[in-house]
Amino acid sequence: MSDQHTGPSLPRTRGPVSAGVIGYVHGDAALPGPGTAGNADPYGEDLHLALYVCYELHYRGFSGVRPELEWDPGLLTVRAELEERFLTALRSDATESADLDDVLAGLLVEPVHGSGLSWFLQDRGELRHLRAYAVQRSLYHLKEADPHAWVLPRLSGRAKAGMAAIEYDEFGGGRAERVHARLFADLMTGLGLDSTYGRYLDDGCAEMLALVNMMSLFGLHRRLRGALVGHFGAVEITSSPASRRLARAMKRTGAGHAAEFFYTEHVEADAVHEQVVRRDVIGGLLEDEPELASDISFGITATSFLEDRLEARLLADWQT
To answer: What is the pTM of this model?
Structure first.
């Protein structure tokens, strides 16, 4: 039985690369020619929308798109070119330190008075800012933890057990109403937004698309398992303080119980996850494969780099 009619609608194109990919999966255009991706901005909307569409075929697909295209050889060739363009740029721009201990120590530093996005939302954010933020984050949070699940078959021992334990929490601990993607959908409903999966793909900025694409890139390639663990560690270690600030923002602006609860849930859960990810997931992987230390470090710094780009973009938009 075909699932061709499930999934969100295909997005609008944003340039020649995304036009070729979207047209091809829709069935009315040819794929971009060889080398086309090499000329695209590695952090730009065109490349990242095209890459997002390629990856989404491995998740829920798109309405009207044949599910067989998930493994279409021509599409996979184009995807590989897009990935290489993006990954090469990340390795060049997001490598701050090769020493994993130094990188991990940097994650544990929490300023008394910060100036990032969560601080802005906590202190001065309005409901319109919170809605705009939720629209962007919906590209990930409506499939929260799914990209990270790809790494489970690529781990073993303590790393696998620790990762599975955290993922079990992310997926609600066996309770459908507590799945974190469901909780974020409730948050969106409380903010007066449409919580349909993929509804806001056309609104997603390049910086958010790049962040979600990085998760899929790391998760879908076994050779990048260390980078995925690094990314996951960065998220879990830094999430609790930021979630506390966002919960305060939701409460201060009267966003509603569901919106506040999503972040209070992450304050508690991620405080525990931080210990598990450092001790068992990262520690276990290093015990099994110490040569992956630099990849773990890269995953952490790449996450910080792309998160900083997203914060800068949103704050600039709001200030103008």
So the answer is: 0.95
Check: CB of residue 281 under 8 Å from CB of residue 232. yes
Closest to 146 in 3D by CA, of 216, 94, 201: 216
Name the one residue in this structure whose structure tokens are 């699932």.
3
Question: Cβ–Cβ contacts within 10 Å for residue 149, how many?
Answer: 15
Is 150 strand, coil or helix?
Answer: coil
Write out residues in the chain with pLDDT < 50, as ranges: 1
Cβ within 8 Å of residue 190, ≥6 positions away: 255, 256, 257, 258, 259
User: How many other CB atoms are there within 10 angstroms of residue 251's CB atom?
Assistant: 16
Helix axes 206-220, 73-93, angle to 10 degrees: 110
| Residue from 117, 108, 115, 114 nearest 246 by CA | 117
Q: In the structure encoding, which two tokens stand for residue 147, read together?
A: 């990209």
Let me know the angle formed at the C-alpha of 136 by 163 and 60, rounded to the nearest 5 degrees: 60
Cα–Cα distance, 191 to 176 (Å, whole number): 21
CA distance linking residue 169 with residue 198, whole number of Å: 23
Specify the DSSP class assigned to residue 282: I
pLDDT (0 to 100) of residue 1: 43
Total Cβ atoms within 10 A of residue 275:
12
| Alpha-carbon separation of residue 141 from 59, 76, 129, 152, 198 (angstroms) | 13, 25, 17, 19, 11
Per-residue confidence (pLDDT) for residue 108, from 0 to 100: 78
10 Å Cβ neighbour count for 116? Answer: 16
Rounded Cα–Cα distance for residues 215 and 218 (Å): 5
**By C-alpha distance, which of 173, 184, 158 is closest to 286?**
158
CB atoms within 10 A of CB 124: 11
The rounded Cα 207 to chain-centroid distance in angstroms is 11
